[in-house]
Amino acid sequence: MSDPIAYPVFRTTDPVLALRVARQLVAVGDRRYAKVSVDVELRTAGEVLRIREALPDAWFRKEDVEGWARDPSDPTGLHGGVHAPELSTDLAFLSSHLPLWASMEYRPLGSVEEEFAALVGPNIGEIWWSSLIWPDVPDRGIYREADNARVSLLFNCRTTELDERADDHTVLVHVRRRNRDGTEERHASWLAEQIGQSVIGPPQE
What we know:
There is one protein chain. This protein is an alpha+beta fold. The chain has one domain (4-193). The protein is built from 5 helices and 8 strands; from the N terminus they run βαβαββαβαβββα. The protein has helices at residues 15-26, 45-54, 91-95, 113-119, 183-193, and strands at residues 4-12, 35-42, 59-62, 82-83, 100-107, 125-130, 150-155, 169-176. An 8-stranded antiparallel β-sheet has the order 1-8-7-6-2-5-3-4. The longest helix has 12 residues, at 15-26. The protein is elongated, with a radius of gyration of 18 Å. The relative contact order is 0.27. The model has no long low-confidence stretch (mean pLDDT 93).
């Protein structure tokens, strides 16, 4: 099974512009099966309550341990995820479990992106579009790609691990990782060119 590799193709301090460019990139692919997901880190109880109210279908979780080490019997439920309507509003409880992450996964395109971009504020967050299909461009040695065709928009961060705060927002295009012989960057560059952009940094895996 292949894995994706991501290349940054646009960066700005304007979240509205970042979303516009990300959507342009999404439109390069076949979107018939595409879904959109969002995720945001919340470092204060006030922010948790704000997002809980604004996104009543979000799920809240802790990321303090690796997935394989999470305790399914955790009485808070936060290692497995708590749906917004069931999340406690007690400030002391929330404060004792910070930071929390809020996510909504695999939603229809256009259903959450603009609202999320307006809500994320200074928090580290991400919108990602999956199940795209990149087109065939045989004269450029580029071939149809579905499994690893994605676009991501990172808010206040530049890394796909969401672990380094930044003062700007980055759009990345994801392609299939091959032999690191230049094929991946050529594919990413071609996709970026279709919207008037280019690869602006090293790949992330």
